[in-house]
Amino acid sequence: MILVLGGTLDSRILTELLLEEGKEVCYSSLTNIATDQIAENPLLTKISGQLDAGTLRETITIYNINLCIDATHPYAREISENAIWACDAMNIDYIRLERPSHIDEGSDIIAYHTYEDARDYLIGAMGKSDRNILLTTGSRQLEAFEGLPKDRTYIRVLPTAGVLKKCENLGYKPRHILALQGPFSVEMNVATMKEYKIGFVVTKDSGDVGGIPEKVAAARQVDAKILFIRRPAVAYPRVITSVEDAVVCALKNH
Hints:
The protein is of the alpha/beta class and 254 residues long. The protein has helices at 9-20, 32-35, 53-62, 77-89, 115-126, 161-169, 186-195, 212-221, 243-253, and strands at 2-5, 25-29, 44-48, 67-70, 93-97, 109-112, 132-135, 153-157, 177-179, 198-204, 225-229, 239-240. It folds into 2 domains: 2-99 and 233-253, NAD(P)-binding Rossmann-like Domain (Rossmann fold), CATH 3.40.50; 109-229, Rossmann fold, CATH 3.40.50. Helix content is 36%, strand content 21%.
């Protein structure tokens, strides 16, 4: 059986293609949001929840895994490092499916290594601009942006009860919580940025599948600066950059 570590659009497409080829797949995601988006199939096992190194080893044993394809979000460093360790310890093949990076720094695009560095820039920029901030980096990193004026900061997050509760606990008012699930078109992004007078957009480097081209195009239409958070450095033993190549590799060797 093939273990797909998912939670991304790429991981769902990959899983569906492997199932079409008659492969047994164990699909794992942190939440049910991603697993519920894959249709039931007799060849498919779906599991959700946090996997640490120990539970990954248990999963490999229970489901007789012979290949792990890590298609998690580029910023899910902990699960990737745990998977690399578990696969190495159990002599299981590991493949990283990594979305290509497309950061093109310029006058309107700035890249930072940490969320805190981006926050510090924004704190300084707020005194020189009357426009607002749109955070699209997810709810798990909101604490890193503490110190930004909440009356001028809008956050786009998943519409789940736990996420909304966290946003409220951090002091964000309902009007500043944009609880929506993507993908978002250029037009949708432009409408959002115009409505809330956005001058600064903070995003992760999620690649084409993560909606980056649409976000960048929209920001440029409204003359907003784009602040990218660079991907964390992970020592992947093997990287494949497309879903199609990952399928070919799985069929060839497993």
